[in-house]
Amino acid sequence: MIKQETISQIRDRASIVEVISDYVTLKKAGRNHMGLCPFHSEKTPSFTVSEEKGIFHCFGCNTGGGVFQFLMQIDQLSFPEALERVAKRYGIVIEPSERGPASRQVSERESLYRINERAAANFQNMLTSHPEGKSALAYLKTRGVDDATARRFMIGYAPRGGSGLADVLNNERLSVQDALRLGLMGQRDPGRVYEKFSARLMFPIADAAGKIVGFGGRVLDQGLPKYLNSSETPLFHKGATVYGLHQAKDGIRKTDRVVVVEGYLDVIALAQHEIDYAVATLGTALTPNHLRALARYTKNIIALFDGDDAGRKAAARSFEIFIDAGLLGRGAFLPKGEDPDTFVRKHGKAALENIIGGAVPLADYYFSWLDQRHGATLEGKSQTASEICRLLAKVSNPFEADLLVRRAVDALGIREESLRRPVKSAGPRASSEARPLTAPAARSDDERKERQLVSLMLRYPPFVRDFQSEPESRHWLSERWRETVDLITREWQEHGSIDVERIAQGSEPEKASEIAALSLEGECFAETEAKSAADFLQYFRQKHEMKIRRKKGIEIRTAEEKKDEQAKRERTLEWEDVKKRQQDRQKFAPKLPPR
């Protein structure tokens, strides 16, 4: 089992902003960073990250926690896997003696990444050192790819007779069997393996964090298939992976847009011409998972199509894919006979960016395509209206649905009433506009104050000490908050401080999310923490004492009815003791917590 000291070292070394920035475009907003939530679709950022506290929280879908919880949720990792990933990023070694069964599984996954890294390095070496590499380098020159760009994208070459990958892996004590799992090698007979990529220019495919998950290979002659991708592996899923994201993510953040093209060399050519916000779909059809991966960085996704009829049909068909991903999307079109690679090399950056800047809503092409497909007859209009209604049923945002209805009416001349059928209510993909960083609506004024008190405990640690010193302070709050208060007070007792990330790390996901939210909500309460703390203590103390006095008054009346003089005297003394404590504090003006 991994030692707590090692976990703390990893957590303390990690920058949650750096880790999350591999997946989400974050912008500084006061003391925190904000971005579009990767866990649900939204138009305005409500996803908040605090570097100071080491936590994140989305005020739209209420997902939150620390750096490990983020990786566990975004990449479906176990806790040991998330721990290992962060440790490796920050150069922290987890000793073999600390690895349990789960950690060994993580180590196996890291071994797969290591094999891909070594294979990529080996292919790069073959490009410059193997005799066949000369023809590959010459091909790159004809495509306008310079040496710096080739190195940036780690382009390599797989010779016809093999690159010696098995020997490389054996020398580094890496598993050839794992190379088989990764699709780098095949096996004809027991004990006889061969390299699957042969006589191909090699394009390593990296995830957003820069880890190599697979490869694409292109022939240099007329052989088939022209492109060959890695097969599905534990690391590589073609329908959810885009090429060039690691290199493009900074450009996407800077421009707040991403351009989707078809091929590896399209991305490379655009990057070389300083259009550094393009990615490719690995030669496969665009999928909702591709779009969801890109939507973590920007909602401004532009698909770049050929300008011929096939390209416009592709634009129309892609609209439904965008809708399935909770997006609307835009399309830009190249002149006929051009692709992004050839166009940017002929006409330059400015010309291509003019085309990208003129991108139009894909809905327009979809409606036009339907009109051409079904025609202007009564039956055709009916079929078109049915298709639009079917698509609208997938749109969970009512404002977007209304916009699409109006565009369809304007474009096709269909009666608005025929399209305004009930659309599906907002579900998991629902758009959520940003909520202010304040507590959710409480069911009562007291509940709102209780939430603010717990939030203040996370923001202003000395308040925890003062709160604990009060007699029966745990009972000041309703049962709803006692578990959370216990977690906070235990943290104070064990460490003498409040580390929100540490509390969240040791909690169940729902509780971790609540703690992250409470910590961030606290930043919106109170002009000064000390004054707020005193106000809250006084308010809840008075509230609790009034509750005791009422209870003792009832017990006194009950004792009178039963003619139990002893019980009456005892309850009266207790009532007077509470009253005296209240009178002793009368010199302090009663105050309510800030609203």
SSE map:
Elements: H1 4-13, H2 16-21, E1 27-29, E2 32-35, E3 47-50, E4 55-58, E5 64-66, H3 67-74, H4 79-89, H5 101-129, H6 133-142, H7 147-152, E6 156-158, H8 165-171, H9 176-181, E7 185-189, E8 192-195, E9 200-206, E10 212-219, E11 227-229, H10 245-255, E12 258-261, H11 264-272, E13 278-280, H12 288-295, E14 301-305, H13 309-324, E15 330-333, H14 340-347, H15 349-357, E16 360-361, H16 362-374, H17 378-392, H18 398-412, H19 416-419, H20 445-459, H21 462-469, H22 479-495, H23 500-505, H24 509-521, H25 529-561, H26 565-584
Parallel strand pairs: 12-13, 12-14, 14-15
Antiparallel strand pairs: 1-2, 2-3, 3-4, 4-5, 6-9, 7-8, 9-10, 10-11, 15-16
Please describe what this structure looks like.
41% of the residues are buried. It is built from 26 helices and 16 strands. It is globular and about 105 Å long. The longest helix is centred in the last third of the chain and has 33 residues, at 529-561. A hairpin with a 5-residue loop joins β9 (200-206) and β10. It is 53% helix and 11% strand. The strands form 4 sheets. A 5-stranded antiparallel β-sheet has the order 1-2-3-4-5. A 5-stranded mixed β-sheet has the order 13-12-14-15-16, sandwiched between helices. Strands 6-9-10-11 form a 4-stranded antiparallel β-sheet, with helices on one face. The chain is an alpha+beta fold and 595 residues long. Residues 423-442 have low confidence and may be disordered.
Labels describing this entry:
595 residues; alpha+beta; five-stranded antiparallel beta sheet; five-stranded mixed beta sheet; 26 helices; 16 strands; globular
